[in-house]
Amino acid sequence: MRGRWVLAAALVVASCAPVASPLTDAALEAEVAAITLPAMKRFDGALPRPVPMPGNAQLTQDFLDLSFQLESGRVLPVFTRFEGPVTVAVLGDAPDTLATDLDDLLVRLRREAGIDISRAQEGRAASITIEALPRRELQRLVPQAACFVVPNVENWEDYLSKRRARSTDWGTLTARTRAAVFLPSDVSPQEIRDCLHEEIAQALGPLNDLYRLPFSVFNDDNLHTILTSYDMAILRMTYDRRLATGMDAEQVATALPEIVARVNKRGAPEQDQLASDSSEAWKRALNRSLQPGLPARLRASAAARAIDLARAAEWNDTRLGYSLLSFGRAALGVQPESAIAAIVEAAFVFRDAYGEEVHTAHAIVQPAVFALTSGQPDVTLRLVEGALPAAQKGQNAALLSTLMLLRAEALEETGRVSEARAVREEGKAWALYGFGSAAEVRRHVAEVAALRPGV
Q1: Global confidence as pTM
Q2: Do 2-43+275-449 and 56-263 fold alike per CATH?
Q3: N or C: which end of the chain has fewer CB within 10 A?
Q4: In angstroms, rounded to a whole number, what is the distance separating the alpha carbons of residues 214 and 437?
Q5: E strand or H helix at 91, and its extent?
């Protein structure tokens, strides 16, 4: 209970802070040029913290909704998965970090999901191929996707020749024998890793995303960047021996009670009512609020509509929190006071629903910034130090580095200079994984440093 009041006090103070004026371009470039960078850090195969699991009835419904629908709402007639050992191959010139992150993922899939999956032998055809290409080339064909997976193709050239064929339509699939993952080669190591997790999981199992899932990458909110223990449970169920390709929804539902009871031994107590589906109106409003290139005023208006719909549906879960967070991010430049209030409320919604998890950590960033710019480094420290463990255990290097850099500036402001220097160096090391290029990392470090009053 004390933690909630500490958060409340810090957020109330932070919400009163003004927005910092950015550095001029000339001043920023001078700061950027002077920044030195350490070696990059990565997570080295560490397992993420287990997440809370729902009750068996909810997990059963989640599995059916994930496995028998596409994101478009189209119903899938039969259950499909790979039958037998699954092999994976990387094609072309991939970034160095891709191979290491892929191997870490395959270890987790074997250990946590019980899937017989490994690298393909040299010269042998693979079940799943991974090809990295320039982002511009990918988005020329699929503008809204950072990365994607396609059934029944071997490589990019094969996809180009078949992309309008019936065989590349997930909705027509009656068996899975081959799939190709296409991801950008010129983005940060974290973005490449995140694509590996999401797209390989989709190649193996669920083809749907559900906004109601609070601890899953099978959710378009992008609050979780790697497969969680919930996701591994879904994949373990997908590859249970009691299920097989070709089963219909009724047959799968009949087999699930025994499967779920075995997989979900630490699940939550059963609830009287299952989580309600997300309405199409809410999804349209939220997706519009996230649309790149749309003016901030229109994105904020769409997010406000999503908030109203979430409240009307009485959702006090990730959907309300994410609607509030989306409004706050969209409205910062056009309705700053309303934006700050929404972000603060999002932090409370997330914390009340899930505790100090990664959802709350995402919502803490902007209030921590406001506190720093208003000369309240002690508030920034309280907020950031409460959020750091979730970012670390969720393996989100971009979020982790931002929190660390904010902490470093707050420490500097309170006179703890040597401690600030050490934290800043670690933040820069994580930023190289989270943000990618040295130039982008230097600019990010300089922008955070400029938030301190008088800098």
Answers
A1: 0.92
A2: no
A3: N
A4: 31
A5: strand 86-91
